[in-house]
Specification:
- By secondary structure, the chain is α+β, with helices and mostly antiparallel strands.
- Helices cover 37% and strands 17% of the residues.
- The chain is built from 24 helices and 22 strands.
- The strands form 6 sheets. Strands 2, 3, 4, 5, 8, 15 and 16 form a 7-stranded mixed β-sheet that branches.
Amino acid sequence: MDKFLEKLGLKRARNKTTKTTNPNLVAGEVQNRIIVLGFIIFLSLAVIVGKLFLVQVSSNEAYIEKLAAYTRRFETITTPRGEFLDRNGNLIVGNEISKAIIYYPPVGHESKEKWEMAIKFSENFNVDESNLNKSDLQDLYMFLYKDEVDARISEKENADHKKGDISISEFHNLKKSKISEKDFEKLTVAQRKAYTIYQRMNMSTSGGMKMILSSVSNEEIAFLAENNLDYPGFESYTNWERHYLEDLGLRTIIGSVSTETQGLPAEKADYYLAKDYSRNERIGRSGLELYYEDIVSGNKKVQDVVYSEDGFAKPIEVREGTRGDNIYLTIDMDLQKKVEEIALSYIERYKNDPRRLYFQTIHFVVSDPHNGDILASVAIKPDSEGNLYNDPSANHLDTIIPGSTIKGATVYLGLKEGVVSPYEMISDDPIKIAGTESKSSYSYLGATNAITSLSRSSNVYMYHVAMRVANARYQYNQPLYGVDMEDFHKFKQNFSSFGLGTKTGIDMPSEAEGYVGKVLQAGFLLDYAMGQFDSYSPMQLAAYVNTIANDGIRVKPRYVQYATDPITNIKVFENATEVVSILEDKEALGYVQQGFRACVTSGLCQGMNTSQYEVAAKTGTADNTYTTKEGVVTLDAPHSLLVSYAPYENPEISVVCAAPNATNGPLIGNICQPMASEVYDYYFNNK
């Protein structure tokens, strides 16, 4: 038996001695433990009672406020934006008060009640349903004809959805795909209008109000006030709209502002939401409105939306909003108006000239070389129906082949690299590379140096500079050896130092960098040197000529000078002049400046020679093809260009003109010269 117990891990007790315990001692020990336990329980209860007293009595109001704050719905309201004024304080864009209707969903109103209210509302108010897109109409059709759409889903598609092979969003899109545009014919105008309102009643705002209608008539506001009990949740609201006192094409520069319906752009929604914007907030969509959003937008008004016992919203102002800061542009509106007038008059004057068949576009950039101020920006273009309009944003978004205007940068490179000397004469004999056509100037110019090659616009001189910079081996009608990618890179770096082929940094949301030639064959380096390879924006040409005028100091162009507080008029922001780069060789630049001045006094720019002010300039003609409306392609539609500044000794303004497709047939006078002269005349007679 003992062995069996041992196998089980048990042993029989043998000879164990039992110790006796005093009953009095045990009773005393138990009593002590009960006393300690009772004391601990008493302390615990005291702490709990104290905490309850603290929460329910002493700090009751504080906790109620915290709970209210946690469950409170704050609403942000966009305040009027700052105004835009020209450099002389003339108002360009302000704000105009308008009436609107907003919506606060009453407690307990579900989809059915909202849809019925939307129908009723759309019957008595002016609702534009034209903004409903295809996706909206599909959603409306599913909303009205749910069973019909469900019946179009196959058994397999339903089974796949139930198994999880098709997600909820994918299943929703699958249903929408079953709805064709033919189905839209069943949707009445009344239904579409009601759905427009229904969408806005259900929009997700992330703290913003639900804007139902903007720019509402006084009659509609009065009707809502008289019948407010019939439209629970709808209220009148004082809104604002952008008001343009002056246009002159500057809307594309100043930009636009979204409506409450448009709200935040989808691609940037997360960015703005992180900055405490609501989804239907009005923000700058383009131009300066977008670029200076933080300055012009102001501080939003904040309301606490509480609900009464009957379930209706009662907004209470928490923080009063302030209007955005006012922005002062660099633009001179009088000069802007004059430049636009000049450009339009020339297009009108030559619209029937057989030598200018394709001339219908003009770019002008007038600026201050020292600080980059854009004094006037004009780009006259035809729309699809041939009507002319001004789109100055094209000056930093469109590009054009520059032609000879950029020869100043080529001469600078040759002098800086020491491959030519200032007064070295180079024969203007044509250049011929094996397998290519002969390259020459517009006519034989004899021999030119650094200065006269600019004043008379020698192509051949630029070809020799390019070949010498590349250390190329040239013989007439033989292959050109020695040109490689590094030589193109050297030219690009040089041109970039003048602002050509690189973004200028202008205060706009985006700008064109220009087109860079991709085929790096030896002969194209010669084209590069005389402006027939890359293309640049008119704004880049302005940066280029300003760098020459400003003794080699390149600054960023700018449309905004500063901003002021709308109440105190104290300056709160200054867009300081920013130096981008400085040319190293002042002596080389001096010869370029002399060449530009000689172009006016004795060269191709003599039409701008006047005793009233001294102009320095460089013309350009760029070969170009043109496709007519009928699809006919012509190789004979060269551009006419001009870069210039005045006065020569102490420049105040620069004028860049680009006239695409300005001539055809035998070359005639550069049309930019007389137009630019009129700009200078106006400026110096009215400054």
